[in-house]
Amino acid sequence: MGLGALLGQEFRSLAGLPIVNVPGCAPNGDAFIEALSHVFLALGGLVPLDLDELGRPRWLYSEPTALRTVRRAETEPALGQSQHASCPVPERGWINRVGGCVRVGGGCNGCTRPDFPDGPLSIIAAG
Amino acid sequence: MCLENLPIAFDETGKARLEEAGSFAVAPPAANGAGPSTNGRTREFNIDPVTRVAGALAFHTRLDDERGVVTEAHSHAVQFRGYELILKGRNPLDAIDISSRACGVCGGVHSTCAAMALEMTSGVAPPPLAIAARNLAASAEFVYDHCLHLFLLAGPDYSEAMVRQTEPSLWERAQRTAAARGAVHGLQAIADIMKGLNPLSGALYREALGATRSGREIVSLILGKYPHPSTILPAGLGVALDQALLNQVLARIVALRDYVKRVVAIWEDLVEFFYEASPRYREVGARRANLLTTGMWDDPEAYDADYLNADRWGRRRLSTPGAVVDGELRTVSLNQVDLGIEEFVDHSFYEDWTGGSFLPASAPDGSPLSPYHPWNKETVPRPESRSWKERYSWSTAPRWDRQPMESGPLARQWVTAVAGLVDTEFVRSGDGALEILIPAGHLPETIIEWRVPEVANALERNRARAVQVAYSLATAYSSLLQALDYLREGETAMSAPFEVGDGVGVGFWEGGRGILTHHCKVEDGRLANYQIVTPSTWMASPRDPWAAPGPYEEAVMNTPLLEETHRSGEFSGIDILRAIRSFDPCLPCTVHMHSGAGTLVRDATTCACGQE
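Above: the input entities. Below: the structure tokens describing the complete assembly.
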């Protein structure tokens, strides 16, 4: 997933930064700006860079809270089990705290998952 | 005759039949004519890449500096996309999500268009409230999309930062010229407008960022997210449209009332300034008035997703479908718009598919179909090296009645103004004119008037796009009022029961930059064929079997080199860029100018990084 597949997981920029992944299709704008601000703060030595094992901002994309987690519906026999996508949008909305997929009756196609878009789409329900 | 070059005739009831002894066979002219002059006076000039809606675009030209003209132009889509191949064999419902990814700006219109193609295949339409909601979201999407183009993508071409360099005498003149509509937009001189358009720093540039955000908030409220929506279903929307949600939408529409009046006034002033400075600006980007539109925004009481009734519900759209050839309105029938569409690949990196055996011979209403029609098309990539004389693009060459067509706000408004079928509280049409009523804000209630221009050129495309911002806000208003009426009447259903059925279907739904159609064929519950024809495919088209250039190519070849530095090393190609960008090719912010030797002469991005 992401740039790591091209540059290698060990890649470091001239400033010593690892690849920071902000997942989504498209990545949520508000989360992207928040992640970017965090990187600047980290570069300034004000906060430690807080990324999970997939290089994602930990507080945005790796906490499986009830609100942030949407579940693939049981109607997906090919996968054999329910799968989860972690995403801040169901809690925060899409832009300026409005909209946001399952928050307004939309489906979740798992666009923040590492395996997106391979595999069936359109069949994730709120869970 | 609606179709002059295709062997399809129509009886008094509009029913189509194949003409006697009629043939769809393509007979190219015996001789291609004399090739363009390549004597010592001309030089190559390449623009590469121009990223656009369906992949990257490059542009190759040959210039005659002495005469100040372009002698040769080739539009070259450099990337294979292959959405047709990705979708083949999949669950038809996947088309809604996957086709959206064909564009990072127009995902909403692709998803909606896919849903409509499936609705026709299965014969199920959404309930009225869902249709009104779809119209509302599409209107807001256009407000976002057109402002993005006018101020962030094309606007910098008319900014102080650009004009000072490319046309210093024009900049002098702009400082001396009062803006006629200053009372509306608040800027005193034309130079003030140009300063406002400066990339990143200009007041108009920055204000447009805010306006596009409002548009996207409305879209996100209804479609879940942007650019790739999550509530779109066949025969409905997943969102529950209630009073609270509509109030949030209304607040954002109200806040844009004065803005759209100012957008129109700014572009009216700019266009007139250029015309007065030199009548030759009428030639920049000029081409024959060949325009095509499927129309937009369905009447919830008329749309039934049935191809047999498409003529009827098409006429009831808030923007009228139709085709204009050489300035004459040929048809307003959605069926006839559809039947006239063909795609050719003689100069593209694809195999001719017409020897195939799976072709449906006719449309769902029995009308004859060309073997080159999208329903009959098969995508067979054929990668090979580029040759300007042979094959040079991953774009196909779509034609209507075998004519190259442009689309977009100019086409939508032209057809609607001449047809005179739209008459609502906010938009009136007829006699080649539009009147758009925008209610009072701080500025008084305003009727914005637009007339069909004498010529289809770069400035008129931009003027039409500015007026289309007001048009889109007007349709947002009327769709919102309609939705409130349905809620009051208890018509709250947002979706109808839907099951995937076998058959053929087509979605007709415009993107901001023009005509969009999705043609699908479902067999055994899977997609047997899926064909997307985007507006940029139409306009970035290479030459056709008759050697006629595509719209970008035609417009650039008609463009005079008015740039004052055009003989010096400072040459920026601004006239060519204005010509291409007026069609709103997607994401033109990545345009770089190269000399024939491939050396970067100058970075002409729409951001400030190219400005010294």
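Note for the figure: Residues 5 and 11 of chain A are 10 Å apart (CA to CA).
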